[in-house]
Specification:
Strand content: 15-25%
Distance between the termini: 21 Å
Structural class: alpha+beta
Number of domains: 1
Helix content: 25-40%
Order of helices and strands: EHEEHEEHEHHEEEEHEHHEHHEEE
Shape: globular
Largest sheet: 4 strands, antiparallel
């Protein structure tokens, strides 16, 4: 399975993520281990960027609406960690063609795959990741489509079953796994968006992560430039800014960071909105869903 990134952005990624000369990443080739995927509905509408006070969260994109409902004991997922975990789980499902996904035998190892240093304490990465992972696998997602002819929707939990690391002290003798719900797995099989996982690691803000995946999905199918109003973009992405100007500034800052890695991305910002121009996606796929994948496996 081979994927190629459209541009070489070694220096830009090093600048964004603090990589040394010895560990810089080449972006002119994206192999299987650098590949990420996201379910298309979670690209068109996105999960919260910051802590959300209520139990329900909604985002819309034209005829599509995403509704997330939190487990009452945990709350809704937000920030960069659940995005990394979603991308990793989706990639594993695509590569293996299986709903039950084996996890590394420790949180430290998984965080290392995400490019995150494992730290303890109340605000350490291990503690934050644990909380966000629980929020993600226990929330319920409802995706709705509606037009003048009617309405269609599907609801599911992302994870059907799970065994995570903090559930037992016998880590060396246990298997750890997440079984995706059948409906979520089917959505991944039917429509998921490929991108370079290393870009997600390098970008700092959840908004930049969302814009990067959305842009590489949208530019490929655009016949002409697309202008999206700031109000429309705000309803689509998981940000919650009181003032439109604040949202616009964060989008412009995020696009600037994305261009350091993907110089070929063409956009124009104005008072009317963000204009996205047709072009090649950052990752060009040359592979399909595994031939051995079976529905319900």
């Amino acid at each position: 399975m081979t994927f190629r990134a459209a541009n070489n952005a070694d220096e830009a990624c090093a600048e964004l993520s603090g990589l040394t000369d010895e560990t810089r990443i080449r972006f002119d080739h994206c192999g299987e281990q650098a590949l990420g995927y996201m379910a298309r509905s979670l690209v068109q509408t996105t999960i919260p960027h910051r802590a959300w006070g209520g139990q329900n969260f909604q985002r819309s994109n034209g005829q599509l609406r995403l509704v997330m409902t939190a487990h009452p004991d945990h709350g809704l997922p937000y920030g960069k960690y659940p995005r990394l975990l979603l991308a990793w789980l989706t990639r594993q499902a695509k590569i293996t063609g299986c709903r039950e996904l084996e996890l590394p035998n420790s949180q430290n190892r998984l965080l290392a795959e995400f490019g995150i240093r494992a730290t303890g304490g109340v605000n350490g990465s291990l503690t934050v990741f644990k909380a966000q992972a629980i929020r993600l696998v226990t929330c319920t997602v409802n995706v709705e489509w509606e037009d003048k002819r009617g309405q269609e929707d599907i609801g599911y939990r992302l994870a059907y079953r799970r065994r995570l690391w903090w559930e037992t002290a016998e880590q060396g003798e246990q298997r750890f796994w997440i079984t995706l719900s059948q409906d979520f797995y089917d959505e991944i099989a039917a429509s998921s968006v490929p991108f370079d996982f290393r870009v997600l690691q390098a970008l700092r803000s959840p908004l930049a992560c969302d814009l990067y995946i959305w842009a590489t999905y949208r530019v490929r199918s655009l016949p002409t430039p697309l202008l999206l109003s700031w109000a429309s973009l705000s309803r689509q992405f998981g940000a919650a800014y009181c003032r439109e100007i604040d949202f616009r500034r964060r989008v412009e800052s995020s696009i600037k960071d994305i261009r350091k890695i993907w110089p070929g991305l063409r956009t124009h910002s104005s008072r009317a909105g963000l204009r996205l121009y047709p072009g090649a996606p950052h990752v060009r796929p040359f592979a399909v869903w595994p031939a051995n994948a079976r529905e319900g496996e």
